[in-house]
Amino acid sequence: MQRTGPPSVSELKAHDDKTIFRAHNDKANFSRNTKRACVSCGSQDSEDASLKVCTGCKRMWYCSGACQKSDWKRHKPFCKSHQETQAAMERDTQILKTLDGYDMPPLTVIRDMLEDFANLHHRVVSIVVGHELGSRSTAFPPLDVKKDCIALTLKMRDPNANPASIFAFTGGSLPCHINGLDSEKQRLLAPYSAKLSDTNVQYSSQTDICFIPALIAVEQPPFLYITTVELRRPQLDLNLLKKTVPEDAPWWAQLEYNAQKGLVVRRHWNERIKTYVEMLGTLKQGDDASWRWEKANDSRGNQKAEEEMRARKKLLRKQ
Questions:
Q1: What is the C-alpha separation between 209 and 228, in angstroms, rounded?
Q2: pLDDT in tens, 112-137
Q3: What distance in Å separates the CA atoms of residue 210 and residue 161, rounded to the nearest whole number?
Q4: Whose CA is closest to 17, among 295, 246, 255?
């Protein structure tokens, strides 16, 4: 059914960042944001419409067989990759028993922890990556995603910590030349790079936006995860990143600062000024063991955002 009017407030708010998480190490090993959506059309899980998981990879959710069928061409190579990763995790479960320190959850749960961690930090990753690439060139898109990617290395900090602090950033390469990686990493990146290259061509004539593959390697337990970083031309502005680390620190140091402090940038719809705003905050654990985002009122970035919102409201009143 085709839309006949502008989106409603509830529809706009549906695109807010959802930052409510259950404890990772509860009896069910549940570490997911409970709000799922169909990867094809965006319909959300509800009492009236229950989503069904892909029976192959058990990673993607759909509201109907029609949506799953329409998404199959895109999902097919990723489905195979997810299944291979799952099989490898089942074979390598014994690795965790050799590790000293924390009582490690199953590898499947660590995968979900890493996905949550990446989702929580994806907005600041875009800003940090944009700052680093913008310091080298103003060209856009800044990378050829068929040849280059973003590479980050992590290590487990504490599986029982704030979901935004579970991992520590320990290194990064930008750009990372794909042909310089080992054959296994090149094989895993291939479908992502090809798909993102096609997507970037599709978007290039419409908006100043590009999508870059990011390879995240966890040192211990050994683990690989691939995600996508969305980069917009304004994010190449060197004034956008408000650093709280020394100027001579590695380009990824701000990511580790945020992760260590449990800081998360959240986007949400502001009805008063009719636009999305990004605010800095932390995850706080409540009595029900869920972690919920709370705005950091003393943040310089938030104070600047509040000033910009007040300026916007003044302009709206004059119109």
A1: 13
A2: 888 889 988 988 999 999 999 999 98
A3: 33
A4: 295
DSSP helix/strand/coil, 231: strand
3-class SS at 213? Answer: strand
* Neighbour tally for 128: CB within 10 Å: 26
- pLDDT per residue as tens digits for the range 48-95: 467 888 888 877 888 888 999 888 888 887 788 777 776 666 665 555
Alpha-helical segments (H) within 146-279: 183-204, 253-261
- Asked whether residue 312 carries a pLDDT value surpassing 80, the answer given is no
The string over 139-159, giving b where at least 16 C-beta atoms fall within 10 Å of a residue's C-beta and e elsewhere, is ebbbbebeebbbbbbbebbeb
**Integer Cα distance of 177 and 170 in angstroms:** 19
CB 145 within 8 A of CB 215: no
CA 278 to chain centre: 15
Peptide bond between residue 175 and the one before it cis (omega within 30 degrees of 0): yes
Greater confidence (15 vs 262) lies with 262
Integer Cα distance of 103 and 283 in angstroms = 23
**Burial of 256 per CB tally in 10 Å (0-12, 13-18, 19+):** buried
| Residue 85: alpha-carbon gap to chain centroid | 19
Q: Read off the amino acid at residue 113.
A: M
Contact between residue 102 and residue 156 where contact means Cβ atoms under 8 Å apart = yes
Question: Of 286, 287, 268, whose CA–CA distance to 277 is shortest?
Answer: 268
Beta-strand runs (E) in 135-250 = 148-156, 167-177, 209-218, 223-232
Domain ranges of the chain: 29-263
Whether a cis peptide bond, with omega within 30° of 0, leads into 141 is yes
% of the chain residues with pLDDT over 70: 71
pLDDT at residue 148 is higher than 80: yes
Pair of tokens at residue 88: 């490898």
Query: In this structure, are residues 28 and 3 in contact, taking their beta carbons and an 8 Å threshold?
Result: no
- Residue-wise over 262-283: b if at least 16 C-beta within 10 A, else e? bbbbbebbeeebeeebebbbbb
